[in-house]
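Page 37, continued from 36.
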């Protein structure tokens, strides 16, 4: 069976960025694996929108994440800094296994539990000036600075440097300007190279020194240590920013769910999976390509083609979740794919959940009657297929 013909650029339509779910539904209903003209290296890609097919693809050894290998014999006009283009996310075992072994202990249940009081203090500090009756932008004033502050604390980044780093990280996800993306990667790569170099030159017991000792013990070289720091910075806050904003908007759109959490904030931890499923902060997962001929969803995928897995689509697949376009806090959504699946599943998921929980708990307890400050149709979304998140979320606090 060959892949059905597909309309041009389904992931670049402006309507897709505002609301991707009609596009995902249309693609999935025709065939859960579609050939689309939006790949890398001059080739089209195969987009996976079905839940079962996405889970299979996340663990298929015939799909590689080694971007350097893919582009080795293909011309490219991109100029990403190596610290951003050669991270753990762009590698396969055994290299991935070695780097993952260093990263995973940073986010164990015990470590994240120890961080929770600090996360709460950051939330309290960021929202100290919020008052009932006031208007705030939840994205700019909480969803962005909260995860940035936490991950920069883990990396030992001085407070004066955190805002510029957040801006460069934001630029990395600008789907409309590849030059801006490449420039941001070099700013981040150069900054972290200097930060790591300074920590190496000055022995100490700070969090970055501890991370570098873990890197040394895990056999990571200097470049790999910088890449790991870059991955923690970028992946450690971009998706969490989207998670918090998307979750709050989903609750405002479903006041009965918001009311349940307002009446019993202890339900928040159990609601996080459904909020992640309902509006995943990762729309299309990071780059993969086929290393051999594959067959998925009844479609033949030749070797050497990019394969895009869409957690945002898979999480709304009616074959996996009944009535998937409904937010249901009683649903068992633990199998969602918002954090991926398999060996590349997001190592920082426990930290993202802790940060989102702290943000939501603050909102429902301190400002239980919060509402949108602008018409819903005026909300703007970031123009990138990789992550899904609002550019701003103006709220009237109450």
């Amino acid at each position: 069976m060959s892949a059905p013909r597909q309309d041009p650029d389904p992931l670049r339509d402006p309507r897709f960025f505002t609301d991707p779910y009609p596009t995902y539904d249309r693609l999935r209903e025709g065939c859960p694996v579609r050939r689309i003209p939006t790949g890398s290296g001059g080739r089209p890609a195969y987009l996976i929108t079905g839940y079962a097919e996405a889970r299979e693809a996340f663990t298929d050894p015939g799909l590689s994440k080694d971007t350097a290998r893919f582009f080795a014999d293909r011309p490219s006009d991109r100029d990403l800094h190596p610290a951003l283009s050669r991270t753990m996310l762009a590698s396969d075992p055994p290299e991935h296994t070695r780097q993952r072994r260093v990263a995973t202990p940073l986010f164990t249940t015990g470590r994240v539990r120890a961080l929770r009081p600090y996360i709460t203090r950051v939330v309290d500090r960021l929202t100290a000036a919020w008052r009932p009756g006031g208007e705030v932008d939840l994205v700019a004033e909480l969803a962005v600075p909260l995860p940035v502050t936490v991950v920069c604390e883990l990396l030992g980044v001085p407070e004066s440097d955190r805002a510029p780093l957040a801006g460069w990280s934001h630029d990395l996800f600008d789907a409309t300007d590849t030059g801006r993306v490449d420039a941001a990667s070099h700013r981040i790569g150069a900054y972290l190279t200097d930060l790591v170099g300074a920590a190496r030159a000055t022995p100490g017991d700070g969090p970055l020194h501890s991370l570098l000792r873990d890197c040394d013990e895990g056999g990571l070289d200097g470049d790999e240590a910088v890449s790991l720091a870059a991955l923690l910075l970028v992946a450690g806050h971009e998706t969490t920013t989207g998670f918090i904003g998307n979750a709050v908007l989903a609750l405002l759109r479903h006041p009965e769910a918001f009311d349940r959490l307002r009446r019993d904030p202890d339900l928040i931890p159990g609601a996080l999976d459904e909020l992640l499923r309902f509006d995943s902060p990762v729309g299309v997962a990071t780059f993969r390509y086929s290393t051999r001929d594959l067959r998925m969803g009844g479609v033949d995928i030749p070797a050497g083609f990019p394969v895009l897995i869409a957690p945002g689509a898979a999480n709304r697949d009616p074959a996996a979740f009944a009535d998937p376009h409904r937010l249901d806090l009683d649903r068992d959504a633990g199998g969602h794919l918002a954090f991926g699946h398999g060996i590349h599943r997001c190592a920082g998921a426990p930290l993202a959940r802790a940060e989102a929980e702290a943000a939501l708990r603050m909102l429902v307890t301190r400002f239980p009657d919060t509402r949108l400050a602008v018409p819903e149709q005026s909300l703007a979304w970031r123009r990138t297929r990789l992550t899904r998140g609002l550019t701003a979320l103006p709220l009237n606090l109450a």
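The chain has a mean pLDDT of 92. Flag for discussion at group meeting. The first helix runs from residue 14 to 18.
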